[in-house]
Amino acid sequence: MIRFTEVVNNTDFNPRMERTAQVVFSVSEVWVNEDFVVSVRPAPAYRKLLAEGRIQGNLHKQHEFTAITTNNGNAKETHVVIGEVNEVARRLNRDHRELLKG
Fold first, then answer.
1. Which H or E run includes 86?
2. What is the pLDDT of residues 59-72, one digit of tens each?
3. Strands 25-32 and 37-42
4. Helices (H) and strands (E) in the chain, counts
5. Which of 31, 25, 29, 58 minimizes the C-alpha distance to 43?
6. Which residues of 24-42 are buried (b: 16+ CB within 10 A; e: fewer)?
7. Shortest CA distance to 84 belongs to which of 53, 34, 51, 47?
8. What CA–CA distance (Å, rounded) separates 44 from 63?
9. What is the dihedral angle through the alpha carbons of 53, 88, 9, 44, rounded to the nearest 10 degrees?
10. N or C: which end of the chain has fewer CB within 10 A?
């Protein structure tokens, strides 16, 4: 399993006040099992949230965000983590096999 820093949505959704809810995000730790990763893609909308100051934490404006989708049986989850797509994909790729003859 690999440890990442995840952006978590802490918005208090009240059905009556849905349009006026203040969107609040925080940063926490998440462990991802690389065997269940289905896709890795950029999440550029979170960079805009960071620029607007909606993500709480000591983050620089240059941070990139990546969405990691995992599938464990019938449960599908998407985790938005801090890191550039290629860096996150490199950390998830733990296969060090080599071609012996070729």
1. helix 85-92
2. 888 899 999 999 98
3. unpaired
4. 2, 5
5. 25
6. ebeeeebebeeeebeebee
7. 47
8. 10
9. 50
10. C
